[in-house]
Amino acid sequence: FSFVLPAYKGRYLAESIKSILAQTVTDFELVIVNDCSPDDIAGIVADNTDYRIRYYENERNIGGNDLVAQWNKSLSYACGEYVILATDDDLYEPNFLETFVPLIEKYPKADLFHARILTFNDKGIIRLDYDYKECMSFVEFINIVVGQNWISGIPHYIFRTEELRKNGGFVNLPLAWGADAATAIMMSKNSVVSSQDILVRFRYSDINISSQNKYGLVKKKVDAFLKYIKWFDRVMT
User: Fold this and answer.
1) CA-CA distance, 156 to 133, in Å (whole number)?
2) Interacting residues of 81 by C-beta distance below 8 A, sequence separation 6+
3) Residue 5 DSSP one-character state
4) Secondary structure (3-state) at 219
């Protein structure tokens, strides 16, 4: 397994790293890519001497102009057969990988695995993910996504690395808005396998793009959503 973590925000990064390194399955790498952050990312990473960490620094900021390009740059460093796009503020339960090892063995043709997710903020739990069927076909998955009965986000997916690269990496949409759902749809052709456990905690805070609603940003989100609809239409025709 490869956890790839594009890092820019330092506020919660130490917690995120700690949750990954606490996995009960220990055979993985953690690739951290500093996207020219103004925060002391290097110092936070240096506090962890774990041999599984590989640390890189971009020569210039990529994510400020193209967040998905930074995702794909981080993906390029992954060596594992399966890759997880971690974030600099979300958290993993210690048994995240442990839960998926038997599921990967049970469904060897699947390219996409999904953990249930809990959304929280500094006041507590906001919502819990739905309980999905263990193995869904492409059609079943599309019906759920279209019906909006699906919690968005990216850190709770496990992608087969070779297949993700073969498809061009993460689907590029402005602000990465809809890129999570689009990439999941792209990778779901051979079914989607879901755990029954909530294994990822998604942090909703004032530094998330999701929580920011300034006029200019909302306009970009609408533009991204329209591009996502066009992308979806091309995929389904």
Assistant:
1) 16
2) 1, 160, 161, 162
3) E
4) helix
8 A C-beta contact, residue 187 and residue 163:
yes
* Nearest-angstrom CA–CA distance, 117 and 109: 24
Gap between the Cα atoms of 184 and 145, Å rounded:
10
CB-based contact 151:130 (threshold 8 Å):
yes
Residue carrying structure tokens 């390219």: 111
Is residue 87 within 8 A of residue 210, CB to CB? The reply is no
For residue range 73-113, list pLDDT tens digits in order. 999 999 999 999 999 999 999 999 999 999 999 999 999 99
DSSP per residue, 100-146: HHHHHHH-TT--EEEEEEEEEETTEEEEE-----SEE-HHHHHHHHH
What is the residue whose two structure tokens read 């079943």? 140
**CA 131/CA 133 separation, integer angstroms:** 7
Give first-to-last CA distance, the chain, whole Å.
34
